[in-house]
Amino acid sequence: MKRPPAKAEENAIVLRAIRTQQAGAFELYAFFIAASDILQIADISRIKREGDELQGFQRKEIRAHVNAIVEFLDSGPVLFPNAIILALSNRVQFEPSRGPAPAGLIDVGRSGTLTIPRGVEGQRAAWIVDGQQRSLALSRTKNRDLPVPVIAFVSPDIKTQREQFILVNKSKPLEARLINELLPEVGMLLPRDLSENLLPSELCNLLNTRPESPFFGLIKRASSGANGVISDQTLLTAIRQNLRPAFGGLAAMRSADGIDAEKVFEALITYWRAVKDTFPEAWGKEPARSRLMHSAGIKAMAALMDALIVRTEATADPWGEIREALSRIAPHCAWTEGRWPSELGMGWNEVQGTPQHISKLTQFLVTKDRELSRALVK
């Protein structure tokens, strides 16, 4: 392989490395790099949104965690065997070593030199997939020459980087909101528990970003920071319940070919718009001011949705009947003030997001709807 010109190497790091391939497609490198050089070659791709487009994949810096690692690194001679995982662009160059292979060599990798350009932030040749907090700490330690192990793969696009980020961090205490928001942006076959979150997460994205949605701008996602009112985890749980085979109100939208996502999205918008119209004084407020926006309220109303869809599916105008049912039940609700009826027996702000309270609130709403609908028939 032709080496880059000397001028280009003046602003590059040249390292001893081992190159191999996995699955015949992914090019991987293993090497060591000085602690102070990691953030000279690699960027941290922060998760954020530009309009409807999701960019990046990394969570925010956890200052206490970084400081603790720096303190450890500065404490004296330390062992730091934890590898940083990088995604490399095609700007890197590898030149294999020359010479005969030793007798009996197990040939699983090729040694050589890897040239990685340095760059300013946002224009570097690599991205950190795993080890963001460690990399920040390594850039700040006094032990600047500490050799740090790195495993790097050549990534053709941001989607591959996100796939690896999700799989690497699946078994770690990574914020579930971050993984769930990234899921719709990848296209590979994922572990079953992640795949089951794929549609609910995409629906959550749409509910938060489409102006016609009653949840527009109200959902807290990893990319939105502190903005929003409703936890995306709460809504994801509610949507998964709605989609449960045989039990969920939206289960009928499943077929042998999968789920009709467009119909599910329209049903969610229609129902929650009816909820918003029925309880305008409780909609869009912080959970501390409205229990409708609380995890208890969202989950209980989602469970009521299941019951209402099942009860009204054979009527001439199911959604019209659902709106009327919500109107009938409204006087019996205490989302922002007062007390719930004796069957529930709690002050409006005493309702908490515990399984017991959610179950009691759900049972009250479903039972009250059944009573009120039967009273109309008599």
From TrEMBL:
It comes from the Bacteria. InterPro entries: DGQHR-contain_dom (IPR017601), DNA_S_mod_DndB (IPR017642). This is DGQHR domain-containing protein.
